[in-house]
Each structure stands twice: as C-alpha cells, then as structure tokens.
Amino acid sequence: MEFWKYQGAGNDFIMVDQRSQQWLRREHTEQIAALCDRRFGIGADGLILLEQHADFDFEMIYFNADGRESTMCGNGGRCIAAFAFDRGILRDSNHYHFLAIDGPHEAFVLHPDVPGQQNLADKGFYHVVLKMQDVGNIQQEDAVFILNTGSPHYVRFVDDTEHLDMRREGRSVRYSDRFKKEGINVNFVAILPGGRLKIRTYERGVEDETLACGTGVTAAALAYAVFNDVECPDGGVSVEALGGDLRVSYKPGARTGEFTDIWLKGPAKRVFSGNIDPAQPLTLRF
Questions:
Q1: pTM
Q2: Residues of the chain whose pLDDT is less than 50?
Q3: What is the rounded CA–CA span in Å between residue 60 and residue 272?
Q4: CA separation for the pair 259, 191 (Å, rounded)
C-alpha cells in the first residue's frame, strides 16, 4: 500500500489514495491504529482515505489514531485538499468541493504568499483555506463553552496556557461523567494582546495533546466572539497553536450565537511518502 504523510500546523495524517484500489475499510480498526502508532507504525494523529464520489471532487473518510472513524477534522480537511492537488485532481482556481462525514465542504489550495517563499509550493507546502459547517447551539457556562464545529469541543478561557498539564487536564474533562460516553475535545485558550488567541488541545481518539486541531481552533475563535461580543476582524482571528498559527473568519448568523461563512486557513505540507503492508513491518521510501 502506498501512503503519503501530510501535516497542517503539526497536526499530522497518513493519506491513502483509494480511487483505483481499496486498501483499507472502515472495519479495519486494528490495522489503522497500527499504522498511526508512533513507535511501531508510520505515526500520525489520524489516517485519511481519499475516495471517489459521483457528486463531488472526492470524499474524505477520516479515522482517529485509535483506528475508529471519527467526526470532522479541520486540519485533515485542509491536508486532503493539498493531497488532492498533489495527486492531480485539478480544478479551476484549485477550488475543491468534497464530502466529509459532516457534509459538503469547499477548499482552496493556495501557493505561499510570503515574499521569497513561493518556491516552497514545489516542495509540497501550501496555504489551504477550508470552509467549515455553520455553527449554532453554543452553550456557555461562565468562561466555558460547549459547541460543535464538525466535532464536539469544550473551550475554557484561562489566563495562561503555558503551565498546564494538558494530558491530566484534558482527561479530567474528556472522561468526566458528562462527556465520557461520547467523548469531547478539550481546549484551553488564552486571549493575547490585540485579540490573538493561544490554544492547547487534548483530542479524543488520539487521547493526548496534539500540536493543533482545526475544529478546535475554529471553536476557540467562535467562543471568543461570543465571550467578548466581537465581530470578526479583517483577516480573521489569529490562533496560535503549538504547531503553528491558523486563522478563522466568520459571519454572524441570523440569531445570536450562530455563525455562518466560517473559513479555516493555515499551512499544509507534504512530509514524505512510502510503501507498507498494513500487516507487516514498516518500510519507508524517502
């Protein structure tokens, strides 16, 4: 099985192109978990299948590192758009329409716009802008917000994110009586000068802190908008994750606490490719 490794702000994924041959199925939980294992497999936060769909440019099927099919992954959605571009799925303006578990999405694959770095596109580096689903039904309890941005998120605003034990703090929320059955992603967010946000995220399915989470960054930006009653600034809300900076733009919906036209922007990079038999030891080709 040929695979490709991509990362978006440090959130890393194994990509498999299944348009012509099916290597993995939804029931292959153990094989997918083994591929994502960082010591005995390729290592990743998740695995994504690129598949044909009659009504879209492609379909995205996403699995967490535990091998189970999961809800929407924002950085995964951005990375699969870059993967589709690299695999020769070409559309006008590199504008893709694809289907994910939470419904249709749009994405634009952009060449780097940093002066002097345009050649990075030749090395598999892109900026990708992904349209997220509309969001409503945001629950607020003081400085804590519960919302679904394609995946369920718990967002708590704190004064400092630097000294948190994220594995302990994240697990205490994720496995609390309220959330342990379905699980929830846990985000701690600090508000920096100028309205920038700093975030740390514990992801269910990975069951550990990840360097970035696209749906978590989106949830943080929308929770910030509600928490501070602010409109989206020009260029969007800048969110600093451990693995890099992401931006979220949005428009207020018809009712308070609803948001539409939500876009997540950030880097996506091809890291390496290789071949592996899912049932055999790992062999890589760099």
A1: 0.93
A2: 114, 117, 281, 283-286
A3: 20
A4: 20
pLDDT on residue 112: 61
Q: What is the sign of the dihedral through the CA atoms of 100, 16, 125 and 76? A: positive
Close Cβ partners of 238 (under 8 Å, ≥ 6 residues apart): 195, 196, 197, 245, 246, 247
- DSSP secondary structure letter of residue 220: H
Read off the amino acid at residue 257.
Answer: G
Q: What is the pLDDT of residues 14-39, one digit of tens each?
A: 999 999 999 999 999 999 999 999 99
Query: In the structure encoding, which two tokens stand for residue 58, read together?
Result: 């492609």
Q: What is the pLDDT of residues 184-239, one digit of tens each?
A: 999 999 999 999 999 999 999 999 999 999 999 999 999 999 999 989 999 999 99
Tell me how far apart the alpha carbons of residues 23 and 271 are, in angstroms, rounded to a whole number.
Answer: 21
Element (H, E) at 102: none
DSSP secondary structure code for residue 206 in this structure: T
Q: Which of 231, 262, 241 is nearest to 190 (CA)?
A: 241
Q: How does DSSP assign 118-184, residue by residue?
A: GGGGGGTEEEEEEEPPPB---EEETTEEEEESSSEEEEEE-S-STT--HHHHHHHHHTSTTTTTT--
36 classed as catalytic = no
Q: Which residue is catalytic, options 36, 73, 79, 232?
A: 73
Query: 36, 79, 213, 232: which is the annotated catalytic residue?
Result: 213
Q: At what angle do helices 74-86 and 214-228 cross, to 10 degrees?
A: 130
Task: Round to whole Å and give the CA distance between 253 and 204.
Answer: 29
Whether 232 is catalytic is no
